């Protein structure tokens, strides 16, 4: 296919909800009352809610038009580094919508919800076998929530060993959630710089690790898309000083079936089901961030735990060492059902193949683009590769201009300006579900764009031009925040 | 495998480009000692049709199936969900998009969330509402942390014992590693929170109440906020049933400074408790202390209205360990869903639906009283209430279950002092006929 992907199209304008409708319309059916009206004390009554009144058609047109201003994985390639924007299978949506499952109430007796408990129990077992760890909690609602749970486990474990610690080691390549999650548990982050190969140096870890340090949080493969080759040695250093090793599994899509987290010396690992296990990102959530731990840390996992006795599944609450409850109910259960469906569809061979192809796609892109874009760490990568805008600076073109030009070409841009240690970073993660033809077309597009940067730089600086809106004034948005629409007479 | 598009020829050609012999060779940088060598204990892969069968089989083991009448709320409510909500929120342009970091190609998500923020702010009576938190429970924990940040030097927060027990458990878990202390306020004989001892407490940054509370009782938030402000603390109002504010005074009107709670009632299926929607708002003065994402309005290069994520300097990806929270995502699609639901109901509809929930609840309450039951808490209720039966309710509950009616939640596990009492919930999905059946069984 030689035809260019990005083209113009008819985009319809659509006002804000409160500029539509007429008082007295309604967009959903409300059952007629079959009981008498009851008295209510005047002082409890509100004045009514100032929502616009819309018909069903008003609502349908409104949200359909809004959806057409969006770009999703179903629309096209979304090589957003560290986000693993793989295809989200349709059957998973169907399974999560199974009426008995979607309608299950979370507070009923165990005997009434054996099916949902079985899903939780089996998914725990599957994630344990996949990571090599022993026990799993599915409660965390997102990756950062998993990190917080992990830090709570660190804290509880150290408390059970008599002495609380106050610091935690975090590499400079880490995602911002790592230090923020550790801070919630009172840990002060001690940054560790990575070396010129993009690796963590065990000698540096040894120099920083002491008896007041709770442990280390590391992402492997790291956010440069490289495998931390000294992980085992680092884990030994941390363990020798009585610390624990936290593995941020955000990049697990690279290494399914390749690494055994326990053998790597990892004590606690979170997984992002919305990355590796194909659940949709939903425009920012809901995701799910289960934590997997070693046998020694299992007593500290959140309660309730799902256990199986004979053929019966039940919730167990009585775990005195547990960090407690971190979600109102059982986590983002609907997301868990999708991941469960994905694992059952893929099986062992399919999951392992997925990682192989994800790494193949990333290395293929890296090899072909390193002649036109600066590649700061020229080593075999895992599932993503990180370029910079160094070679485009002479044309006064920066990463953001290239990202915006890619939008006009019909692609979601890569992750930009992360990791922070690469100036003007562009992090490309194609995932395994993109085929060679589409990747070849993407590579051609980037090469053309690089040429445009030299020959027609305005094309990049003015991009995007084919979208509903052009570049937006983010400074203005932050300086004079307008966070909700007008109320009352100002509407 | 239908999700993996590579043919063997393509793999060979791509490997040749990279200069690798095999797919396994891509992992040469992974040390041998770290390798996975144990085979996995996973079932054999299932076809799409086998997966359908498997889930159908699991669904069949759910004793409270789709035709069951569930009169249990306790933070998870059964309301009718219009097909439009399911169908619009299910559009894959919304569901398969990432966080709108590239606003030019995510205006759908952004305008939708801006509208959600606006409608939620109007519902709660708040000046600002964020793009959502994980759920009601974590939203409460974050609200208390926010209160502590605003108060700076103070080290304690007080929470009502009539707040959902699971929410209180989450608060304890979040605050346990910190130097902060959580004080619990008992409830009175009428089911409302006892504020009488509060004035003696010192060093309190914020006080949190739920209204309607876990017992369904509507708190006197106005009086509470006056008392809380008098001790120079912030008033946090929490909720599990936002539909109540279609009828009742909203927390902002009652003087709350921060409002947080669960938005599942608005078009989101119960789904065994998640995903839900942590709604979170505050007064304007506290905007820069808010946790979580915010969408704001701005203009593009040509002066057209558009939306972006904003005030990111509060957030972890900029501020790292100094961020207002570690939260990175929101429950984006759930917020969108709630927005669609609120738009479908409208101002007229939400009043009507809210009223219907209220009326039906009063009906069951009175029917049970006539059947000999006692209502231990005299405070006014919205769509939940606690019941005490003259005799052991266990056998009645079993008989009702045989008729596919799940009648109430026994409270002993959550409040030992209320053992034998049941928390009932009535929404628009419960007919008079079902309620009459329950009353008849109680009388029998």
What does this structure look like?
The complex is a heterodimer of chains A (491) and B (444). With 491 residues, chain A is of the alpha/beta class. Chain A folds into two domains: 92-345, 3-Layer(aba) Sandwich (Aspartate Aminotransferase, domain 2), CATH 3.40.640.10; 349-477, Alpha-Beta Complex (Aspartate Aminotransferase, domain 1). Helices cover 33% and strands 10% of the residues of chain A. Chain A is built from 13 helices and twelve strands. In chain A, the strands form three sheets. Chain A has a seven-stranded mixed β-sheet with strand order 1-7-6-5-4-2-3, with helices on both faces. Chain A has a three-stranded antiparallel β-sheet with strand order 10-12-11, covered by helices on one side. In chain A, a hairpin with a 2-residue loop joins strand 8 (305-309) and strand 9. The longest helix of chain A has 37 residues, at 333-369. The two termini of chain A are 49 Å apart. With 444 residues, chain B is α/β, with parallel strands linked by helices. Chain B has two domains: 69-81 and 347-443, Alpha-Beta Complex (Aspartate Aminotransferase, domain 1); 83-341, Type I PLP-dependent aspartate aminotransferase-like (Major domain) (Aspartate Aminotransferase, domain 2), CATH 3.40.640.10. Chain B contains twelve helices and 14 strands. Chain B has helices at 8-18, 48-60, 83-89, 92-95, 107-124, 136-151, 165-175, 221-230, 316-319, 332-370, 394-402, 432-443, and strands spanning 69-70, 128-129, 156-160, 181-185, 204-210, 234-239, 258-262, 278-282, 295-299, 305-309, 384-387, 405-406, 409-410, 422-425. In chain B, helix 5 (107-124) packs parallel to helix 10, helix 6 (136-151) packs across helix 7 (165-175) and helix 10 crosses helix 12. The longest helix of chain B is centred in the last third of the chain and has 39 residues, at 332-370. Chain B starts with 7 loop residues before the first helix and ends with a helix. The chains are: A alpha/beta (491), B alpha/beta (444). Chains A and B meet through helix 1, helix 2, helix 3, helix 4 and helix 5 of A and helix 1, helix 2, helix 3, helix 4 and helix 5 of B.
């Amino acid at each position: 296919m030689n035809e260019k992907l990005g083209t113009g199209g008819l985009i319809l304008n659509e006002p804000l909800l409160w500029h539509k409708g007429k008082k007295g319309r309604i967009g959903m059916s409300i059952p007629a009352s079959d009981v008498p009206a009851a008295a209510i004390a005047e002082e409890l009554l509100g004045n009514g809610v100032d929502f616009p009144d819309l018909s069903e058609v008003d609502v349908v047109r409104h949200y359909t038009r809004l959806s057409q201003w969006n770009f999703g994985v179903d629309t096209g390639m979304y090589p957003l580094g560290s986000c693993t924007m793989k295809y989200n299978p349709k059957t998973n949506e169907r399974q999560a919508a199974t009426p008995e499952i979607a309608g299950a109430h979370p507070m009923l007796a165990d005997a009434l919800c054996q099916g949902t408990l079985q899903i939780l129990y089996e998914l725990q077992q599957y994630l344990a076998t996949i990571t090599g760890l022993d026990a799993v909690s599915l409660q965390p609602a997102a990756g950062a929530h998993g990190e917080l749970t992990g830090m709570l486990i660190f804290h509880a474990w150290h408390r059970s060993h008599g002495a609380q610690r106050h610091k935690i080691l975090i590499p400079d390549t880490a995602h911002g959630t790592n230090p923020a999650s550790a801070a919630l548990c009172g840990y002060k982050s001690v940054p560790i710089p990575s070396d010129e190969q993009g690796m963590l140096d065990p000698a540096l870890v040894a120099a920083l690790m002491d008896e007041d340090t709770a442990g280390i949080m590391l992402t492997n493969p790291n956010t440069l898309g490289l495998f931390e080759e000294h992980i085992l040695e680092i884990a030994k250093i941390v363990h020798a000083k009585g610390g624990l090793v936290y593995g941020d599994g955000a990049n697990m899509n690279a290494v399914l079936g390749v690494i055994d987290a326990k053998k790597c010396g990892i004590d606690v690992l979170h997984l992002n089901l919305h990355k590796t296990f194909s659940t949709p990102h939903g425009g920012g959530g809901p995701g799910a961030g289960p934590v997997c731990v070693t046998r020694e840390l299992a007593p500290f996992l959140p309660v309730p735990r799902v256990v199986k006795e004979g053929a019966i599944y039940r919730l167990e609450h009585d775990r005195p060492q547990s960090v407690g409850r971190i979600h109102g109910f059982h986590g983002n259960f609907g997301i868990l059902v999708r991941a469960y469906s994905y694992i059952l569809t893929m099986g062992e061979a399919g999951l392992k193949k997925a990682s192989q192809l994800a790494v193949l796609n990333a290395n293929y892109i890296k090899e072909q683009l390193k002649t036109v874009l600066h590649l700061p760490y020229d080593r075999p990568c895992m599932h993503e590769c990180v370029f910079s805008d160094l070679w485009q600076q002479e044309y006064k073109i920066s990463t953001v201009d290239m990202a915006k030009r890619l939008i006009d070409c019909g692609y979601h841009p890569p992750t930009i300006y992360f990791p922070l240690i690469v100036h003007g970073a562009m992090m490309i993660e194609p995932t395994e579900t993109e085929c060679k033809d589409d990747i070849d077309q993407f590579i051609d597009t980037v090469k053309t764009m690089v040429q445009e940067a030299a020959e027609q730089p305005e094309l990049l600086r003015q991009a995007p031009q084919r979208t509903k809106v052009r570049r937006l004034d983010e400074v203005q948005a932050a300086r004079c925040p307008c966070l909700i629409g007008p109320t009352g007479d100002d509407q | 495998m239908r999700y993996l598009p590579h043919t063997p020829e393509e793999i060979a050609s791509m490997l040749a480009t990279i200069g690798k012999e095999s797919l396994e060779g891509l992992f040469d940088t992974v040390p041998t000692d770290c390798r996975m060598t144990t085979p996995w204990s996973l079932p054999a892969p299932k076809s799409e049709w086998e997966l359908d069968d498997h889930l159908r089989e699991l669904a069949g083991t759910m004793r409270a199936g789709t035709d069951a009448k569930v009169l249990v709320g306790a933070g998870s409510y059964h309301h009718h969900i219009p097909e439009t909500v399911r169908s619009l929120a299910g559009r894959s342009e919304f569901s398969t998009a990432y966080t709108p970091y590239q606003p030019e190609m995510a205006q759908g998500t952004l305008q939708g969330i801006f509208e959600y923020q606006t409608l939620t702010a109007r519902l709660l009576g708040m000046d600002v509402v964020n793009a959502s938190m994980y759920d009601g429970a974590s939203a409460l924990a974050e609200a208390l942390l926010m209160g502590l940040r605003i108060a700076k030097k103070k080290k304690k927060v007080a929470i009502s014992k009539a707040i959902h027990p699971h929410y209180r458990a989450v608060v304890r878990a979040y605050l346990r590693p910190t130097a902060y202390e959580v004080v619990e306020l008992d409830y009175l004989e009428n089911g409302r929170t006892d504020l009488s001892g509060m004035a003696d407490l010192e060093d309190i940054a914020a006080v949190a109440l739920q209204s309607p509370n876990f017992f369904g009782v509507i708190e006197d938030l106005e009086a509470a906020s006056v008392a809380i402000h008098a001790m120079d603390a912030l008033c946090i109002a929490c909720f599990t049933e936002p539909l109540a504010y279609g009828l009742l005074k909203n927390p902002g009107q009652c003087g709350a400074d921060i409002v947080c709670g669960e938005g599942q009632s608005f078009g989101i299926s119960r789904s065994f408790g998640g995903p839900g929607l942590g709604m979170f708002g505050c007064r304007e003065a506290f905007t820069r202390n808010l946790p979580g994402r915010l969408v704001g309005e701005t203009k593009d290069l040509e002066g057209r209205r558009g939306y972006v994520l904003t005030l990111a300097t509060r957030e972890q990806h900029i501020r790292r360990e100094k961020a207002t929270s570690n939260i990175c995502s929101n429950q984006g699609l759930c917020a969108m869903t709630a927005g669609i639901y609120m738009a479908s109901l409208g101002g007229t509809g939400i009043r009507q639906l809210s009223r219907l929930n209220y009326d039906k609840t009063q009906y069951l309450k009175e029917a049970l009283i006539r059947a000999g039951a006692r209502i231990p808490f005299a405070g006014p209720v919205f769509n939940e209430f606690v019941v005490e039966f003259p005799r052991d309710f266990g056998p009645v509950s079993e008989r009702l279950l045989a008729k596919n009616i799940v009648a109430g939640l026994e409270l002993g596990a959550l409040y030992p002092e209320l053992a034998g009492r049941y928390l009932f919930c009535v929404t628009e999905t419960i007919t008079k006929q079902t309620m009459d059946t329950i009353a008849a069984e109680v009388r029998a």
